[in-house]
Design goal:
Blueprint: H1 10-20, E1 24-26, E2 34-36, E3 39-40, H2 46-52, E4 56-57, E5 63-64, E6 66-67, H3 69-77
């Protein structure tokens, strides 16, 4: 997990909520970009950034996106 204290943006929190709701998939063809409700997220760096921060489990880099325990805790505290 990235231990730097960078606050999450409103967009990042919205992405985490969408992941928690089961609305996101990780596209293996595009370096880990997120697909939300069947459409690519306009911020193509959000998925890799949140995965690098340890908030999203990128797993095999393809398939459903899932929150990590840290992501769930951060979302619950927000």
């Amino acid at each position: 997990m990235n231990t730097t204290a960078t606050p999450l943006s409103y967009r990042d929190r919205a992405v985490l909520r969408a992941v928690a709701a089961g609305r996101c998939k990780i596209s293996g063809n595009t370096g880990g970009a997120l697909v939300v409700d069947g459409r690519f997220l306009s911020d193509q760096f959000a998925g890799p950034r949140l995965a690098a921060a340890g908030l999203i489990d990128a797993g095999s880099h393809q398939g459903p996106a899932r929150l990590t325990a840290s992501g769930e805790a951060l979302l619950a505290a927000a």
